[in-house]
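Section 3.1: Structural characterization of target chains.
Under the original work plan, the team committed to producing a structural model for every single-chain target entering the pipeline before any wet-lab resources were allocated. The record below documents one such target. The sequence was received from the expression subgroup and is listed exactly as submitted; it comprises 100 residues.
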Amino acid sequence: MKDELSNEEWQKIRKIIFNLFDLTWEYAELSAKNSSENLPDSKPQRYDNEPFSNYNQRMLDWDKTKSETYSKSFSESKSKSFNMVKELEEYLQKLGMPDK
């Protein structure tokens, strides 16, 4: 015979799932920071006699690359971990976890 969970136990499970969703966000941020830190840290230096427009373009390209790397990594990490927590939540609902 199976034991059924009480409403209090289901509420604890809900809190755990909520915390897992929060951790998903934090994990994605850390993962994205780590990926963007693997890029060259220092801003491009201006070459002797380099026109400002060329230097400015290199700066914009450098900044864009760092931003794109961060965004891509954040989105991928968040999506992957969020989907795992969501899947866990769906299984628990099949087992009888109430909506609220």
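Residues 21 and 82 are 6 Å apart (CA to CA).
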